[in-house]
Amino acid sequence: xIRLNRNLxxxxxxxxxxxxxxxxxWDSLSRYETPTWFSKAKFGIFIHWGVFSVPAYQNEWYPRNxxxxxxxxxxxxxxxxGLHENFGYKDFIPMFTAKKFYPKEWIELFKQSGAKYxxxxxxxxEGFQMYQxxxxxxxxxxxxxxxxxxxxxxxxxxxSGLYFCTSSHRAEHWWFLGYxxxxxxxxxxxxxxxxxxxPSVKEQPEEDDLYAVPYxxxxxxxxxxxxCCEIVDRYxxxxxYFDWWIQHEAFKPYLRKFAAYYYNKSNKLGEQAAICYxxxxxxFGTGIVDMERGKFADxxxxxxxxxxxxxxxxxxxxxxxxxxxxxxxICYLIDVVSKNGNLLLNIGPKADGSISESERTLLTEIGxxxxxxxxxIYNSKVWRYYGEGPAKEVEGKFSEGNTGAYTxxxxxxxxxxxxxxxxxxxxxxDGNTLITMLADNKDQNIPMFHGxxxxxxxxxxxGPITWSKDTNGLLIQTTPLKNTFPIVFKxxxx
Length: 494
Prior knowledge:
494 residues; alpha/beta; 17 strands
């Protein structure tokens, strides 16, 4: 491996920014526009897979928590692997073999799920790069599986027509492994740039404090910038997702530099790229707002994304996953799309590269629903109202699971193909659906709908259907249905 000259690479980045058209100011970056492909895609697959998949215990924060005395992970590590000074996190790397990683099979499964883009994690908080790198030899190309995971997924996805994207969670590495210095472990000085555990600061900053000390050093921030730009140069992702902590004040100038470099690079190729960010890390309008395990309570005038996982208790594979149901995930997708959002749904492959049967089933069931009802999702736009019904939506990050059960009166709307799509979140057992938003008249709560309804059909249904409209709403009647998933009425108007 030829190690990059960091100073020369930084100069190249600065020169590319100076040539424009995007410069490293929020004013310049505000000229960004959301890619058309993203606004149409609606559904993507997130992939948390790495060395942390080897212990498969608790969640992807095992690398951090195994060094915190008194935690379940710490006690599990001692019992299973021995003293931390003899077997540390780095010793899991040779066990990360990926012997059953077949990228074409992964991509075929993702296509069956109905996803339009994929976002494999390039580097998580613990610092192991899932790609070939000239900045550190602690990467999947040189160690563990000895394969360029990102490149293989990029080639397979693009061959199948999926958009290839990626994510960096590197920012938190500044403090992520610091607890390992507080007792006898394999994390000890001297640590230098490029080392797996570097810098592992002892002092743990307040993670949500925008001005937390100790500030990330210039060396760390430059290294962060170079790693991000290297991913762009090697793999040309169509979207770059950032996890949190880049909202810290110290990252701002480096984040602006990366955004300008990335947007300029894509612009030169005649492509549209985007950065997903959380916690107001970027100026609004310079990227795509993302909300982790949560959503907005109402429709937004801007395109946004939520990321969540098939499991409630982890992003990576573990031996104790609590999976959501496919019905729950489909309803989540519908609600998000009705509010102008995209759903990025995470899976966690096993350390050997195989995907669990539970996740395979969930993805194929989502795909089966989308195969019938996808015209209400893909390429759709929002209607004047996102929906109606008694379910109270809870807004904010980590708010999922608090909405309560949907009923047959909970309906979500999208528009596409010259029609309004009314998606009934719970199939009515008697075959009767009343849509109050399409009533003839209005009172204090019901708007007037002036459009002329020409036809009403139920996607995937071949039985008899009748409909009538009065001051109560649009009443649609079918034979009793046994469908356990949401049903979609296509309402063609003039």
